[in-house]
Design brief:
The structure is a single chain. The chain has three domains: 6-48 and 351-515, Multidrug efflux transporter AcrB transmembrane domain (Multidrug efflux transporter AcrB transmembrane fold, Up-down Bundle), CATH 1.20.1640; 54-167, Hypothetical Protein, Haloacid Dehalogenase-like Hydrolase, Chain: A, domain 2, CATH 3.30.1240; 198-346, Gyrase A, domain 2. Helix content is 53%, strand content 19%. The protein is built from 15 helices and 19 strands. The chain has helices spanning 6-23, 30-33, 49-52, 63-84, 110-120, 139-163, 189-197, 211-215, 273-285, 322-334, 351-405, 411-424, 426-440, 445-477, 480-515; strands spanning 46-47, 54-61, 89-95, 99-104, 125-129, 132-136, 170-174, 178-184, 202-206, 223-227, 237-241, 246-247, 251-258, 265-271, 291-295, 298-301, 313-316, 341-349, 408-409. A hairpin with a 3-residue loop joins β7 and β8 (178-184). α4 (63-84) crosses α5, α12 (411-424) runs parallel beside α15 and α13 (426-440) runs antiparallel to α14 (445-477). The longest helix has 55 residues, at 351-405.
């Protein structure tokens, strides 16, 4: 254990130099770092919401809207199926919060209709009362749809936030229908709220020529009246066919751009192969007819199809500013939310609180470190000073590791660092006490040091590995603040094991080779 090869010495020094290299950027401003060569480390430690300020949002997913949409889809499917089978019906519509009802005009066709609808809507509960068929979603279907909507919403929110460039956001499910969003360092929370407030469901519909009739209050079957986003483009409402010709789900890309003829900001989009086929077939069959682009129940624009569009791409115009075009492209790229989100709670955390926390953390760290250094120097003399030097390098390695990993440092994370200061010398205490025992047994300096390191190693590894397992479990199952504590604790355990087992031992070996003492100053 006392022998140190040149390869080991080089490896230890290299790790220490890397730690110093990655920690140094934290002592300079970002403007200064920008002038350094690209091959040098440039990254600061990411500060969490509680340290650098930002936005805290608690969102609620309106799951009822998802169930309602599913029921309306069932209504359309039932209408289409009964028409194909030429079964006369009346009173088709949504029943309550989980069912669809329809009345069959001829009683002899009721059973046939029921069988058709059973095949059309499997796993539902179908009952018949006086020629009226009631199709209801089961409790299992509703629960599955709710869970799917929440999970999908979390993923879509994550995509939207990531594309804004926000670093280290916390996005997680909370309860049955809520999502917690924490955004450190966000300078424009209103923009984030706008992005999360848009469902971004896009669809393409053919328009209906009977707008005058609809405006008088008689909306034709199979059509719906939608408001226009920009009323300056024509009549404030547009009558469109309910049937979706192409869905926004088939979009694979969207980017902000500029119209080559007018120079105004537009959004270009591109479909996948399925969407390209639908888009091409629809535009080819409806040349010289308006084609409405609908986003969240509002018509963005309804351009006339001049010629078939077969390439699977196009553009959306609508008197956008460039920022609006950028945000719309972002929403379409990230995908549509399955249901609207409601902001239940909003908090803005100022950086002043974070500055106070950082200052308090620094004071606690300095006091703890000074007390540990004094104790080690008094208790173990020269060996304690070696452990103190290793402790200082240990703190540098923790800072460098957090910078390199771009882990988020939170207030509990600072607590983890303070805890690590005390734990970092535990291994040295075990080793030094073991060496003292070997000296009392009459061993010489080299033999006592070798036995001390060898016999304490197993205990050190056992103690630190069990703590590392606990830190790992905290990271896997914990939320944001707990994860912050787990990260610094885990990194601190690894660096303290390195400094205690490798670095302090290197100091001891160098001292032994230079002084060859006859007795140990312990």
């Amino acid at each position: 254990m006392v022998y140190f090869s040149k390869a080991k010495i080089i490896a230890v020094l290299l790790v220490c130099l890397l730690g110093i290299g990655f920690s140094v950027p934290n002592f300079f401003k970002e403007q200064t770092l920008g002038s350094l060569p690209d091959w040098l480390p440039h990254k600061h430690v990411n500060l969490g919401l509680d340290l650098q300020g930002g936005s805290h949002l608690l969102l609620e997913v309106e799951v009822a809207a998802v169930i309602k949409e599913q029921l309306e889809t069932m209504v359309d499917d039932v209408r289409s199926e009964l028409r194909k089978a030429r079964i006369n019906y009346t009173g088709l519509g949504v029943s309550g919060e989980k069912g669809v009802h329809v009345t069959i005009r001829k009683s002899e066709e009721t059973e046939n209709a029921r069988n058709l609808l059973r095949v059309l809507t499997p796993l539902t509960e179908t009952t018949v009362t006086n020629n009226t068929i009631l199709i209801e979603l089961t409790s299992r279907q509703i629960a599955d749809r709710r869970n799917a909507a929440i999970q999908q919403s979390v993923e879509i929110v994550r995509r939207r936030i990531d594309q804004t460039g926000t670093r280290e956001p916390t996005i997680q499910r909370q309860g049955d229908e809520r999502i917690l969003v924490q955004l450190p360092g966000v300078k424009d929370p209103e923009r984030i709220k706008r992005l999360l407030g848009e469902t971004a469901k896009m669809s393409f519909h053919l328009t209906d020529d009977r707008l005058d009739e609809a405006l008088r209050g008689r909306i034709p079957p199979g059509a719906k009246l939608l408001p226009r986003v920009d009323a300056t483009q024509g009549v404030g409402q547009v009558l469109v066919k309910k049937r979706v010709m192409v869905s926004g789900e088939d979009l694979v890309d969207s980017q902000p751009s500029t119209d080559s003829q007018t120079g105004e900001p537009v959004v270009t989009f591109r479909f996948n192969s399925r969407g390209s086929k639908k888009f091409g077939a629809t535009t080819a069959a409806n040349v010289n007819r308006p084609f409405a682009i609908v986003l969240d129940g509002k018509v963005i624009s309804d351009p006339v199809i001049r010629e078939p569009i077969l390439g699977g791409s196009g553009q959306i115009s609508g008197n956008f500013s460039f920022q609006e075009a950028t945000d719309l492209a972002l929403l379409l790229r990230a995908g549509a939310l399955p249901a609207p989100l409601t902001i239940l709670e909003e908090r803005s955390v100022g950086p002043g609180l974070g500055a106070d926390s950082i200052a308090a953390g620094k004071i606690a760290s300095i006091i703890g470190m000074v007390l540990v250094i004094v104790f080690m120097a008094v208790a173990y003399g020269r060996f304690g000073l070696m452990a103190d030097a290793a402790l200082i390098i240990n703190m540098i390695l923790i800072l460098g590791s957090l910078s390199a990993l771009q882990a988020t440092l939170t207030l509990p994370g600072i607590a983890g660092i303070v805890l690590t200061i005390g734990m970092a010398v535990d291994a040295n205490v075990l080793i030094f006490e073991r060496i003292r025992e070997e000296v009392r047994l009459g061993r010489g300096p080299v033999s006592a040091i070798d036995a001390g390191y060898s016999r304490a190693l197993t205990t050190i590894i056992d103690a630190n590995v069990t703590t590392l397992i606990a830190a790992t479990l905290l990271f896997v199952f914990g939320s944001g603040p707990i994860k912050g504590f787990a990260v610094t604790l885990g990194v601190g355990i690894l660096t303290s094991m390195f400094t205690a087992i490798m670095l302090t031992r290197l100091f001891v070996v160098i001292w032994l080779r230079r002084t060859t003492p006859k007795e140990l100053p312990l």
